Amino acid sequence: MTVEPISPAEPVKDIPADIPADEETRAGNYFVSNYPPYAFWSQSRVDEANAAIDRAPAPGTPLGIYVHIPFCRKRCHFCYFKVYTDKNSTEVESYLDAAVQELSIYVQKPFIGARKPTFIYFGGGTPSYISSSQLTRLVDRMKALLPWDEAKEVAFECEPGTLTQGKLQAIKDLGVTRLSLGIENFNDEILLANGRAHASKEIGRAYDFARSIGFPQINIDLIAGMVGETEENWRDCVARTIEMQPDSVTIYQMEVPYNTTIFKEMKVFGQSVAPGVASWKTKRGWVEYAFAEMEKNGYTVASAYTAVKNTSPAPFLYRDLLWRGADMVGLGVASFSHVNGTHYQNDHEFESYCAKLGEGKLPLFRALTPNADERVIREFVLQMKLGCVRQAYFADKFGVDVERRFKAPLHRLRDWGFLTIGPDSLRLNRDGLLQVDKLLHEFFLPEHRQLPRA
């Protein structure tokens, strides 16, 4: 896979003053992961999901599987995912049984067709929380239902403190090709202040174990702007990451969604600004620093969040195929799926999720089928996060001239100094890329720009 570099720029510019912008980190969802936004999905449209599941797949559409393992040692203060820290071994086993039952229902549906999964992603929560024997049983049962022999990527999220050499070997034996370590920061005080379960001493040990076993690809996650973080600490985190030489590095800018511990504490104390969290301008500056340092040390910036080692192919099919319309079945509580053009989410409560599957029913909760224009917008805004959009892709797939369809917002981004409109591609520079999630709202339909509060 060829990764095109995104040109650096210095200094990082801000969106012009005529666009509403608040540089302080306040509560709300910043990261754009889909379109139309999840807040517009509804229970009244679940029949659309059932209809999509009962249709044959569009020819040539890749199929992926997402498996949500919602168990953690602790809940991070910034976490907004569906996770549990209080489930015993019996409950964990019943949940894994339910996830397998869910897949067994899906494999009988027309949308699977003759396809085998191209990519599999174990996310959480903490997939590495469960035991090696539980992981092995889960995967063996899933493979018996839907073989993975044609899978090009099996990605697996880990928390360093849950890893031993034995467990890492078991994970590799499952066929995992991309191991992602949720390091976030290397400082014990900052890890503790943000509710992380692992300590700094566990990071190097877990990474060295993983390297010694020979995973094809190891990714490290960092978060810029965590509670209590300083510029000195951030620079140290960047230096230590470069010293480790992972195949890829993913950097998120800290946000405070409504269902986080931080937000709940903000409500108690009547705070409108997240205490101890860096401003957006500071976070953008820190990510720019990290990317610049990584570029000096043999990495290429491949998206708004990732730097890839130049000597590693480091594809990320889960992201790249989803952003180009692949089908994906999400197994597990609150998981998201995309099937035959319809988006839907599972039941978001542990007990009811398991109960429905115990009755042989799919645990569908809410859904939305985007119209033709919304599908174009979805793929366009997601691919903008890569820093480069090819006009020919949209002309070939949708018969849409994106320069004409998005003329006004494209010209605004160009005039603000963030975008170059070329004959073959639309390219964000580094300034634009570092605040791309804010810029993407320029391409939303009017009815989707003011989100209902989650």
Query: If you consult CATH, what is the topology of the domain at 38-321?
Result: pyruvate-formate lyase- activating enzyme
Give the overall shape, derived from the CA principal axes: globular
Under CATH, the homologous superfamily of the domain at 38-321 reads: tm_1862 like domain
Percent helix, as a range, is 25-40%
Structure summary, number of beta strands: 15
pLDDT < 50 runs, ≥5 residues: 1-14
The name of the CATH architecture of the domain at 38-321 is Alpha-Beta Horseshoe
Task: Give the structural class.
Answer: alpha/beta
Please identify the oligomeric state. Answer: single chain
For the biggest β-sheet, the strand order reads: 7-8-6-5-4-3-2-1-9
**End-to-end separation:** 37 Å
What does this structure look like?
It is a single chain. The protein is of the alpha/beta class and 454 residues long. The protein has a domain at 38-321: Alpha-Beta Horseshoe (pyruvate-formate lyase- activating enzyme), CATH 3.80.30. It is 36% helix and 17% strand. The protein has helices spanning 46-53, 89-106, 132-145, 165-173, 188-193, 200-213, 231-244, 261-268, 280-296, 317-322, 350-358, 372-384, 391-398, 402-405, 407-415, 430-433, 436-439, and strands at residues 63-69, 119-124, 153-158, 178-184, 217-224, 248-253, 299-301, 306-309, 327-331, 336-339, 342-346, 364-368, 388-390, 419-421, 425-428. The strands form 3 sheets. It has a 9-stranded mixed beta sheet with strand order 7-8-6-5-4-3-2-1-9. The chain starts with 45 loop residues before the first helix and ends in a 15-residue tail after the last helix. Residues 1-14 have low confidence and may be disordered.
